[in-house]
Here is the input.
Amino acid sequence: MRVALIGTGYVGLTTGVTLAFLGHDVTCVDVDADRVAALSAGRLPFYEPWLPEMFALASERLRFASDSRCAVPGADVVFITVGTPPGADGQPDLTFLRTAACDIGSHVAGDFTVVVNKSTVPVGSGNWVEALMRDAFMARNGSRPKGTSFSVVSNPEFLREGSALHDSLYADRIVIGSDHPRSIAVMQELYRPLTEQTFTSPAFLPRPDSVHTVPLITTDLASAELVKYASNAFLSLKISFINEMAELAERVGGDISHVARAIGLDRRIGPRFLDAGIGWGGSCFGKDTCALLSMGAEYGVSLPIVAATREVNYRQRDRVIERLQSKLKILKGRSIALLGATFKAHTDDLRDSPALDIARRLAARGAWVRLHDPVAIGKAERELDGAGVACMDTVAAAADGADAIVLATEWPEYRDLPWSELAASMRTPLLFDGRNFLNEAKVRAAGFEYHGIGR
Ligand code: NAD
Here is the structure.
């Protein structure tokens, strides 16, 4: 099939590469001309495990353009994968979506095109995109679409940064929202290699033994749009719940990792997303829970669970500062080594990263923050420009003379650091493990005073 993707970010590029790998003819469009030039030259704009390898496998069927006219006319399927960042009022900013919809509407041509909204958008956006496209089509052609028809479907994306390629090839499910049989048939055909798992797995991403087929769920547009928000709200809720329990465990002298393991073995609950820590971040959970609250307000439905999920999450960041303060008393002039800048390991994404938030807040209180990240330190330096945070190339440089280390991201390389040497180089060997990630006995043996979350 001929596929166009509008937006080559984490979602667009991953989707484009995956569809090209599966045998479709894919053109990825982005308004960022530098990004398009880099991609055309084989340079990837962000870090994602296995993306370079998949990109190489798919490159024959993958093209890049900065003008949607090179991709939209004649495409069987056009994906919208532009960003929907948080707006000032909590609602997602749909400016990019509007531009993309108008652009597609003015260039769509051919017998039938399915326009797929993969960006995370509030309920009702599918109808809005279709109306924008129709207007743009009429403005350009002077008449209603005749001989050219299109239909907008919702196909929410569930990939996790850090395992995006794995999640795309071996998804838990694919959701299609549409009441248009022909569009659903096109989407079923597009995704058949995935749903039936008929492709040959790349050697570096073998098919898990448990994956034989991938369910494709069809539903109406509104339900599909809601699925994405409800999924993210539930996942963020699980993390906030365990963090709330962690605070109580700490007070009563329990260990939240034992509690989490025991409750997670209940099959009704499941073990994942029960890791206590400094809380969630990233481009989706914060933005999507906020959008959900706005949607609730718009439709007169209060969503107290979603509101509490957010409250508990952002409180975790305050608690890091409070705990540092209670140990060090005065933060002004203290030197704090912060390990990890990204919101989780295996990505270079810094959006709504707890680490950056904590770095900024510590710096604002007069602490001297020295940040390290194995992948995203250059990006972090640009992001933190003017915040008074020093970005270091090595952990040793960040820890040298420090009053405390805070581990903010669970990068595997932090597990086996030369802890004795680090402790010896610090002013006070104090360690806050914000992800309960380190071997407590080992770091204590190296001379650290260790503090985890909820233990
Ligand atoms: P991103 O910001 O990384 O990428 C968006 C890209 O779209 C940018 O490269 C931008 O230049 C481009 N763009 C903007 N307007 C354009 C236009 N009119 N024409 C062509 N290109 C345009 O965003 P992302 O993280 O890939 O997220 C995309 C959407 O997917 C969002 O709605 C997000 O909520 C959702 N989502 C993201 C993830 C994730 O983990 N990142 C997961 C699931 C869903």
Notes: The chain has three domains: 2-219, 229-310, 319-451.
